[in-house]
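Same chain as my last thread, 218 residues:
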Amino acid sequence: MTIFFNEIYNVVSSGLTALQEAQVTGKAQKNPVSESIFLSAWVTKVLKQHSFDRCVVKTLQEWQQQSRTMGKNAQLKLHFSRLAETYANVTNDQGQSTVITPAVMATFYTALEQQDWLVTNEYEVNRKVSHHTDGKASLVVCSAQYAESMNENGELVKPLSLYVRGNTQQFIDIAYQHGILLYKITDYKSKVKFHGEYIIYPMNAGGHLPELPTATNS
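reply #2:
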């Protein structure tokens, strides 16, 4: 089965390569308008030709619609570049991403706490709950779901929900620094009152686009 993570990385890498080749041969100019026109046409072409697995079709259609309605303001080149760089920095030579282990999670939690986040991971979250943080940024992880998500070898094998309240971009950036991509479910309403919900997937293999870090580490 084709994994969305790998295929969308293939899409953006292929699009940027096609643009670069077109610029070298003079078929596209190095300016935002020309680049937007080229990538918009490229997205339409690969959709028509079924060039990529169907798992990325919805995302390609969304980009096609954005480019049609927003023109150069869709910033497809910037979006492709940021996605390609983000994926590149959490992918090894075999095309696999981070194996998320208890050690990875522990260092992630520590990094958050060093930025004055309150990390709560010792309780079950099996219904709507309130969590008082005294104004601190907060991460809540259900202890039962965490235990179910890790296998006997200490690897994440099931999606895990993270309940978040605070500077979400900082949260995304710190996760990314530890090789973890976050997939947003909701900004605000979740099982934990006033917390949004993000999901981490085994080896970052979510079925849609992740939240992008502010800056990559290349």
